[in-house]
Write a structure and sequence with these properties.
19 strands
Length: 990
């Protein structure tokens, strides 16, 4: 049989399997997290978050044309980019496994091979590539518009290309493959940098081919040179060349007084000239190594040139223009991801370290009218040397991170960690929880899709589960089959091909554990980050493929027919991808799922015309961007994300018109919000004032009043009082009709805004500026996340008008009970909102979706409760029944937080049958979960929550005359309280 022909056919077969799988399970619209952003910026070639992904944007833009003018199909086709890239990843993985395998089996690619060896070789490639096809993390990225699928494609391609290079004996032809590899790496910079991590593994392939008798020091030197190549690309080419260009620019513009851009032009000309000269000179002199290096560098730069899109589009001021990298100085900061700060890697402080001082670092230049101006300087903090350590792992001073460090390490409050604690955290949490747990998700199974769920071990395979966990589609049990086969293949490659085991093993470590150490992540993340380590799972799937060869060798001792052995071992090992596909299909199938976009549209539809909506997180921002930028929904509403509102570039962008949204009317100017200025951080100083007029305070800042200067921080203004007063023209507000009639009595002549903590950030100042300057003519809205992030207590002054809350000059006497504009909220939620797919049990709604459904249910409950309080019983009944119709339990299971108030409302409205039905569901699920937790001897918040639910259920049943049910629930409440050691004095009291 011909190796090349069978190899090609086999590769395209698995390509087709992967393509069909990913296409059938693909997200059809913009899912949560970064996908909404990437689809938006791809569709209109805008500027995403640093460090950008310009090649991804360009390819996404090309595929968006397949929507043929239907904007609702744009997301579908940009998601398809990941489907196609992922299918090609599987293709190149198949070919890579077959090329690795032919070395183990000593098969030539140019000669005919026996049928039994062909079955065996390509069986292993089938098993390994299909295992990766259905691996949890890779499948997740393969069906959505994120960069990780395309990044995996580049990784798979360069590994395959290096194996192809290994086959070629003619050095000139072989060098072309090296140049192709570096060109692909240059292109990959425009997607994601993970591709660079493969270089040491590729370096070993190069070394083993060039040197038939490898030595320890030869391998060491190869790895050192490989690390230098990574450093050359990652530090010298990517941020280094733009940094040098920036130095040229500052000199030519500020010193030589030449126009903007002159320094960049001169540097670019010198760089291109030097490269051309070097390539020609080395070509003539016959210096092959240096010539290959220079040509490869040129091709890296050609690939890297996709980043020109970022600067070009930023200069056009698109609606999404993150960090505004429109000139070389801001572009360098964009590439270096400076807005995210830095993490210590080799040497740094413990989280308990006290700052002893600081030194001003390099200046930060900002483009002015004629020159670049120094607007800020980087600050380097000095710590007590006793609080410093090598390889710092526990460094973050964020309060929640500090609490997590202490909980994981068992440190008491005030107790300082030591180096052993530092290392224990690295091995236990960073490697154990943040990598090995993810690794086991892919090859052993996972408990559920709930954040921080554990992997499934043998003890959990057949345990009795409560309905809530048993029905969780994210629960996948692989019975550790893929893991065991991978370990078997690993051992087999060690014994039969130690050289290439070193290549595969290095690829596995560098894209896994080494990446964990390099990233040095904080102790908690907003979501699971397993997709980062997909390259490591890619390498492990190569070993899963080699398990076919290992089992064939074992079977060969008993069965002498080679073809029978090959087929039998392949069929046995296909159990791994088969169980992965069967278990993983339901929680990777994203078809007919739309609520990510619907929830975004519902936020926008909650707002009055020309409104400003403050948001606080990725999931309540990026889908809104998608709805506006792609589908054109409510482009009169300006979405303001608070994490960016702390920056001058973002505030400056709000001063421009965007679609129908008018510029923001600030009292302060862009100069007052400039980064590094006196208003970045307004620390409270006791100036003897209990309160200060907000308008007066803004005017003092605008006049640069010297009396506002903080006594201990000469370069910063202070906050002289912890209460800001905004006077309200009550007659004007009433005439505008923005306050509903039933809340008219709550209108106040003064809003007394209490500062939370001891400071205001720039975002708080800008929001207060808007609040004072708009004078109620521009509607201002917040949602739950933004409300929690402001350092000003707005809760007494908000009214629900849907899923968002409008800031109004009213004072809620009981802020814990939300005020609702029932007329507007009813119109929005029952006539304008969308709830597609929430009643379909076949649609998979992951934890992110379920949380947003919880928010939606809660909004409808608040509306129904407010209508009932107003005496509008029929409308209240309509609203709560509408909620149950659109979001039934069989579509998205009832949650504990909204079930109780729903039961209460239904009882009040005389819907006893429905109330008791939900009571039975809630009661059963809580008792099942409590039995499960007690069996496992677990004690955490969810245990207390379920116990509290029982307490509240029995209270309500007593209240509404359901004595028998109440008695039964109370008995269980007492039983579980006793079992948990926390029985209250009066079981009926909560």
């Amino acid at each position: 049989m011909n190796f090349q022909r069978i190899n090609n056919i086999g590769g395209w077969i698995v390509f087709t399997v992967a393509l069909v799988t990913y296409w059938l399970t693909m997200e059809e619209t913009a899912s949560y997290w970064d996908c909404g952003e990437f689809i938006s910026v791809s569709y209109k070639l805008e500027v995403p978050h640093p460090p950008g992904a310009p090649l991804f944007l360009l390819i996404g833009r090309l595929f968006s044309f397949l929507a043929l003018g239907d904007v609702t199909r744009v997301a579908y086709w940009i998601n398809f980019v990941s489907v196609l890239a992922s299918a090609f990843t599987i293709l190149f993985l198949f070919w890579s496994i077959s090329l690795f395998g032919r070395k183990i089996m000593k098969v030539s690619v140019t000669e005919e091979i026996p049928a039994d060896k062909a079955w065996l070789l390509f069986g292993s490639a089938f098993v390994g590539s299909l295992a990766y096809t259905f691996s949890d993390s890779f499948w997740f990225s393969a069906v959505e518009a994120e960069v990780y699928a395309m990044s995996s494609f580049f990784t798979a391609f360069v590994v395959w290309a290096m194996m192809k290079w290994d086959l070629i004996e003619d050095e000139s032809r072989a060098n072309r493959w090296l140049i192709l590899i570096f060109y692909m790496m240059g292109l990959s910079i425009g997607v994601h940098l993970l591709n660079l991590v493969t270089i040491p593994a590729l370096g070993l392939i190069y070394y083993f081919k060039k040197y038939k008798d490898p030595s320890f020091w030869g391998i060491v030197w190869t790895l050192l040179i490989s690390l230098l190549i990574i450093f050359f690309i990652n530090d010298i080419i990517i941020p280094g060349l733009p940094s040098v260009a920036g130095a040229f620019e500052i000199y030519f513009v500020n010193s030589l007084r030449l126009p903007f851009g002159s320094g960049v032009i001169v540097f670019s000309a010198l760089l291109v000239g030097a490269l051309v000269y070097g390539i020609i000179r080395t070509q003539k002199s016959g210096n092959v190594i240096l010539n290959t290096f220079l040509v490869s560098t040129a091709f890296i730069l050609i690939g890297y040139s996709s980043y020109a899109v970022i600067v070009i589009r930023s200069n056009d001021n698109p609606p999404i223009n993150e960090n505004d990298p429109s000139d070389v100085m801001s572009f360098v900061r964009y590439l270096k991801r400076e807005q995210y700060g830095s993490r210590p890697l080799l040497y740094g402080q413990y989280f308990t370290a006290e700052i002893q001082g600081y030194t001003e670092g390099v200046p930060i230049y900002t483009k002015g009218e004629k020159r670049y101006e120094i607007t800020d300087r980087r600050v380097d903090y000095r710590y007590n040397p006793k609080d410093m350590t090598i390889l710092p792992r526990i460094y973050s001073t964020a309060p929640d991170h500090q609490a997590t460090y202490r909980a994981i390490l068992g440190l008491r409050e005030g107790e300082k960690p030591n180096f052993i604690d530092n290392m224990r955290f690295m091995f236990k949490h960073q490697i154990g929880t943040m990598y090995m747990r993810y690794f086991m998700f892919n090859f052993a199974g996972r408990e559920s899709d709930i954040q921080d769920a554990d992997w499934l071990g043998p003890r959990q395979w057949f345990e009795e589960l409560p309905e809530e966990l048993a029905m969780n589609k994210g629960r996948n049990n692989f019975f550790m089959i893929p893991l065991l086969l991978g370990l078997l293949g690993l051992v087999y490659q060690i014994n039969h091909d130690p050289k290439n085991f070193a290549v595969t093993g290095l690829l596995f470590i560098l894209t896994g554990v080494a990446l964990v150490i390099y990233l040095n992540s904080p102790p908690s993340e907003p979501r699971e980050r397993d997709y980062i380590y997909a390259g490591s799972y890619y390498a492990f799937c190569i070993w899963i493929g080699f398990s076919v060869l290992a089992i064939a060798e074992l079977l060969g001792r008993f069965i002498k027919n080679g073809r029978t052995v090959a087929i039998a071992s392949t069929v046995l090992c296909l159990s791994a991808p088969a169980v992965m596909a069967a278990e993983g299909w339901d929680d990777h199938d994203r078809s007919n799922r739309y609520f990510s976009v619907d929830s975004a549209i519902n936020y926008l539809q909650s707002c009055a015309p020309n409104a400003i909506l403050f948001t606080g997180g990725d999931n309540d921002t990026f889908p809104l961007w998608y709805a506006q930028e792609v589908e054109g929904v409510r482009t009169d509403v300006r979405v303001v994300v608070l994490s960016y509102y702390n920056t001058d570039w973002y505030i400056k962008q709000t001063m421009r018109q965007t679609y129908e949204s008018e510029p923001f009317p600030y009292t302060l100017t862009a100069k007052h919000y400039q980064q590094g200025g006196p208003n970045d951080y307004l620390m409270y100083y006791d100036a003897g004032l209990t309160s200060i007029d907000l308008v007066e305070y803004l005017n003092l800042i605008k006049r640069n009043y010297s009396g506002l200067q903080h006594p201990y921080m000469s370069s910063a203004n202070m906050l002289p009082a912890k209460e800001l007063i905004l006077n309200v023209d009550v007659d004007k507000v009433r005439a505008m009709g923005i306050v509903p009639k039933n809340l008219d009595s709550l209108i106040v002549p003064q809003m007394r805004l209490r500062v939370i903590g001891n400071s205001l950030e720039k975002k708080d100042l800008a929001m207060l500026d808007l609040l004072a300057s708009t004078n109620w003519e521009r509607p201002l809205y917040v949602n739950n996340t933004s409300l929690a992030q402001f350092k000003v207590d707005l809760r007494p002054y908000i009214v629900q008008e849907g899923n968002a809350y409008r800031i109004l000059p009213i004072r809620n006497p009981r802020p814990q009970d939300e005020l609702v504009n029932t007329e507007v909220a009813y119109e929005n939620m029952l006539k304008k909102f969308q709830y597609r797919g929430l009643d379909d049990p076949k649609v998979y709604h992951s934890e992110d979706y379920r949380k947003f459904v919880l928010n939606q249910r809660n909004s409808l409950i608040n509306l129904a409760s407010a209508l009932l309080a107003e005496g509008q019983e029929d409308k209240a009944r309509e609203v709560i029944l509408f909620s149950l119709e659109k979001m039934p339990d069989h579509g998205v299971p009832f949650d504990r937080f909204t079930s109780l108030p729903t039961i209460q409302l239904l009882m009040e409205l005389g819907e006893k049958e429905r109330a008791l039905s939900i009571t039975d569901i809630t009661y059963r699920r809580s008792t099942e979960m409590l039995d499960y937790y007690i069996r496992r001897n677990e004690r955490h918040n969810d245990v207390r929550l379920n116990l509290a639910v029982l307490g509240e259920l029995q209270r309500m049943m007593y209240e509404y005359g359901e004595e028998e049910l109440a008695t039964r629930i109370e008995a269980d409440y007492v039983k579980y309280s006793d079992a948990l050691g926390g029985r209250p004095a009066h079981p009926g009291d909560m």
